[in-house]
Amino acid sequence: MSPFDAQTGYMGRLAPSPTGLLHLGHAATFRAAYERARERDGLLLLRNEDVDPQRSKQEFVDAMIEDLAWLDIAWEPPMVVQSQRLALYREAFERLLVAGHVYPCMCSRKDLAQMMQAPHEDTDDEPVYDGRCRPADSAGSRALQPGVNYRFLVPDGEAVRFVDKNLGSQAFTAGTDFGDFLVWRKDGLPSYQLACVVDDAAMRITEVVRGADLLKSTARQMLLQRALGLPPVAYFHTRLLVDEHGVRLAKRHDALAVRTLRQQGLSSDDVRRMIDAALR
Ligand code: GLU
């Protein structure tokens, strides 16, 4: 029983991955999430998306908590920590496996690199998997094989549609805009897509606020929600930040780390003005 179970109204979340410092893009998205929760008298939770032990670092968890406070973005404790919730993801994965929604993929990194073209420039999105490990029929083994990656079998040709609260009508076609995506990793950990969907439901999130670079992930996650019988969620995708030439501000640009801006003597109000100028 979590302290949030009694909440019936708006429930939002901040979901940073502690793999680097928060940058201006996070600040923009988190500010929108904070304002939307506040305007609706809702709660805003913080979820530390640290499922990847190789990339996650405690120093970035400490930094994000400090940076959020400096940005005046308040959230409702306790922080939800994904690395402590692995049993929940595993249970969801097993349900997908038994229902025939996932299949083992034996492709090596090298296979994937050869088969896939470079990701599209203006998103961080992964290329479409060509389905070479898809089972020939749906009666494949539904027993969990350890040490193997598993992919979600997307319904090719199906349009996944939703009305985004910020960007309006969206439609992505399974098999074209995105392919069979990873749900379970061979090291025994869930993918971002699976952990995110399971947690959004478990935390009773009513609206997901995140960057527009994750629009296709939203489509993937809607398919996962359906397969798992989880309730739908509303979405508000924030526009990507651009410079004065309309070029996207690169995500991993150190100069745009909230911390760097602070060390340069900027105030949180200055950062807010920078965000407003870049959200055109
Ligand atoms: N952890 C993800 C990121 O930092 C965001 C996940 C989400 O908002 O769903 O990119």
Account of the protein in words:
The protein is an alpha/beta fold and 280 residues long. The chain has 2 domains: 11-84 and 241-278, Rossmann fold (3-Layer(aba) Sandwich); 87-184, Glutamyl-tRNA Synthetase, domain 3 (Alpha-Beta Complex), CATH 3.90.800.10. It contains 8 helices and 10 strands. It has helices at 24-39, 58-70, 86-98, 109-115, 192-202, 215-228, 258-263, 268-278; strands spanning 11-14, 43-48, 76-81, 102-105, 149-152, 159-164, 168-173, 182-184, 207-211, 234-238. The strands form 4 sheets. It has a 3-stranded parallel beta sheet. Strands 4-5-8 form a 3-stranded antiparallel beta sheet. A two-stranded antiparallel sheet has the order 6-7. The chain starts with 10 loop residues before the first strand and ends with a helix. The structure holds glutamic acid. Glutamic acid binds at residues 15-17, 49, 196, 210, 214.
